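As described in the Methods, two query proteins were run sequentially through the folding procedure within a single session, without resetting any intermediate state between them. The first query and its resulting structure tokens are shown here.
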Amino acid sequence: MSGEPRSARTLAAWALPCLPMAGLNLPLVVYLPEYYASELGLSLAAVGATFLMVRLLDIGFDPFIGGVMDATRSPIGRFKFWFLISVPLMVASSYALFMAKPGVTSGYLLFWLVVVYASASISTLAQLAWGSVLSGDYNQRSRIYGWWQAGNVVGIILVLTLPAVLPLLGVGGHAAGVRAMGWFIVILAPLTIAYATWRVPEPDAGAAQAKPGLADYLNLFRQPNVVRLLLADFLIGAGPAITGALFFFFFERVKGFQKDTASLLLLIYFVGGLIGAPLWAWLATRFGKHRTLAASNVLYAAATVGALAIPPGSVPMGALLMFLIGVPYAAGAFLLRAMMADVGDEVRLQAGKDQTGLLYALLSGTLKIGSAIAVGVAFPLLQALGFDARHGGGSGGLEGLKWLFVLAPAALALAASWLIVNFPLTAERHAQIRRHLDAEAAAAGDPHAVH
């Protein structure tokens, strides 16, 4: 069963909830921090501190809920059960955050960020862990998470088109675009998650296992391959998060683009990601996930530095560079998650227990740390450099913005490439692990021991 490919229809249904989930995750990094600072009246420092605080709190929630998922058994499955639970939390918090009016307080933002990040943690962990048990084959996992990445990019593209479409319908303004993003999530989240849980099977997890204790968490950090993936995920996630948080400031203040044109460039960036996803998935089957990932990071670093060469107001050059940056952007997220599925098999062989949910919780945690740094450190740093979110900044503030936008993501990507290029869990090594797991399952007479 582990090597049987899932149909494209099944994987499309499984990836469908990525549309509203991406519609939530992108604005949380790119639109909402800037929107609450420039439109709703909160200071840059207040917005940065609030997002940082909630992200740090959320990091502790992930391992808890991941361990609970591993121990959950229900008639519909352990991961689908939690996927459904995330829906009402996501709908309520998205409505509150995206429909907020001027005059909101930091307390209001803090409360609803806590709820929305909890819902995002539950839904993301449930979907990613569910994907890891759809196949145990090394190359099939690249295909599965390639669908996941494509779903995310399509969701992002759809969300980004909303501000451009609304004026054609007679609705204008930045606030209207943000509210439209909120409605996108509120409507699609319950529909797509319900359809996925109905249409896509979840293999039986077998007998219930005890909820993990502190020793189980600590033991994972003694696994070299786990630690290496977590560090790589932090580095790869932090770069685009910094780019996203500073995107509109950079293109409006440094490069002289209007906000609607900058939104178009952001859309082109994700179109590049959509085109890149199947390319990187194919390269991973030819050269291995780790080598493909390392190469994508080098390309991402080079293209990001190239953004400095965009002439002010030049849409063709801006579009070309943003497309080139977007193509390698797609690789990191889904290849790391496919690699973590392989590491999950290695951990299961060594520890004798399934810790899939916990592993993906740790992986989500490193991404959240990177995103927290993007807003929680970059925004206050910009303010310290003299940058004014409402009225522009002096030359010092703009110079700091320019170099922070390109050099920090490029350096992080190159560090990740160095870290991952010699990753030891290759296709050959993973095949050996699967054979051992299958042999143990056959000896125990337990058909559910391996998925």
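Immediately afterward, the second query was submitted; its sequence and tokens are:
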Amino acid sequence: MSVLEPGAPPQKVTLDGRYCRLEPLEERHADALWAAISGEGLEARYRYMSSRTPIDAEAHRAWVRAARDHAEWLYLAVLDQGTGLCGGRHAFMRIRPEHRSVEIGDVLWGRGISRTRIATEAFFLTARYVFQTLGYRRFEWKCNDLNLPSMRAALRFGFRFEGIFRKDMIVKGENRDTAWFSMLDEDWPELKKVYEAWLDPDNFDADGQARARLATTR
């Protein structure tokens, strides 16, 4: 029986792709991120987030400062390579290096990033870091089971549904049944090929629209 060794925790790294750049979330990202998420639809964006909806730019800036210094989660800013502006963020959560397992969560991708190749590449760069740099065995995605867009995103990205943890949490005074999804190290080699093919510039038209769907269903 082989001995399974623990891994190292995620670090504050910078990850560059064709369309996006991931770097540790800092206060300097706050204004551009606020511009990408504020206005119409702000409440909906925060409907299933653990944090309350910021009332203004200063409240959001204070949240960014707190997230930057979070004791347990590590936040990454998502920047558009074309503009250099931050339009989204997500975090490494439930970091368990002793089990070589981590969760991507608290995902908030704003206008210009959500549902674009930037968001897909941001996920790809994160997953590649988890499996190929950290050498982790398990990558997790969890969400409120009422959050259908998040559940669809998990399946699109290639996660497998594992089940519902009933009455798992109380969030903002409401019950949360949590849907669990996972991706394993043995899944990654094939998924990596799918992502690289989909992210190839030849797969996009002049308007940046994908010619083919991201077919990760296994």
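The chain has a mean pLDDT of 96. We note this only descriptively and draw no conclusion about the first query from it.
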